[in-house]
Amino acid sequence: MQLISRCLLPLALSLFVWGHAAVADDSIAAAIASARMPADRVEDSWRKPHEVLQFLEIAPGQHVLDFYAGPGYYSELLAHIVGPTGQVLIYNNELYNQAAHNGLTSRLARKRLPNAIRVNAPSNYLKLAPASLDRVLIVLTYHDIYWQPGDSPEPMGDPDKVLRILRDALKPGGLVVVVDHVANPTARENITPVANRLHRIDPQVVRADFARAGFAFVDESNVLRQADDDHTKSVFDASIRHSTDQFIYKFLRP
After folding, report:
1. Which branch of life, at top level (predicted)?
2. How far apart are CA 89 and CA 128, in angstroms?
């Protein structure tokens, strides 16, 4: 009897993991198929949300932060997936909040996303409850931590401070997924100029930032890689708009 039990335990565990993944996958598909904002569906083709959210390992009941969420394309999908027992924090700093105000206000009107909460704060002073988050998603905006607006004496954030805030807010075992536009290898002193001019970031800079903050690199996805992208062009160049080479990294909070 003990031998049978030992043999059945791995099978039972495998079935549990498979079942959990199937539920999460169904939730992602249902969120994408839901009654979303019309403009979101136009973006689905180049954002590949199903693949990104699968990679995030998002599931019902989780608490997640959408970092520099802008008008909330991913915030809405996350809110549908985590459901009534989960929560989504839609975070923008002052600059992002101004740019995204109208779109985000429309998205949240009439309590469309009752489990989503807007959070506005300077990047280096974001207040989050310790060990309160399961997931953090940063899509096409990590480079903006290094971006220095023309009228600002410094970049939008200090990556060491920002990542320390995120690390403290994540539960042990929590995950961060970063999606961003690929830049060519960049010396430390040129990260901000590249972010200003091209709105890209060297993937190795991101790896180094997270390692310095105590995160463990887990995996990467190539689903948004574009081999023919010219990394010397701005991501807003019409010839490559919405078809840039993008890396997707996953990091673990030990």
Report:
1. Bacteria
2. 10
Name the DSSP letter for residue 182.
B
Mean pLDDT of 121-130: 97
* 30-61 pLDDT per residue, tens: 999 999 988 999 999 999 999 999 999 999 99
Contacts of 178 (CB under 8 A, 6+ apart): 138, 142, 206, 210, 247, 248, 249, 251
Contact indicator for 176, 253 with CB cutoff of 8 Å: yes
Find the Cα–Cα–Cα–Cα dihedral 206, 142, 22, 12, rounded to 10°. 40
Domain ranges (residues) in the chain? 2-252
pLDDT in tens, 131-167: 999 999 999 999 999 999 988 889 999 999 999 999 9
User: What's the helix, strand, coil split of the chain in %, to 5?
Assistant: 45, 20, 35
- Helices first, then strands: H and E counts in the chain: 8, 7
pTM of the model: 0.90
CATH code at 2-252:
3.40.50.150
DSSP strand E in the chain: where? 63-67, 87-92, 116-120, 133-139, 170-181, 216-221, 246-252
Q: What is the mean pLDDT of the chain?
A: 92
Cα–Cα nearest to 136, from 163, 100, 117: 163
What is the SS3 assignment for 88?
A: strand
Residues 6+ apart with CB under 8 A from 17: none
> What is residue 21's predicted lDDT score, i.e. its pLDDT?
61
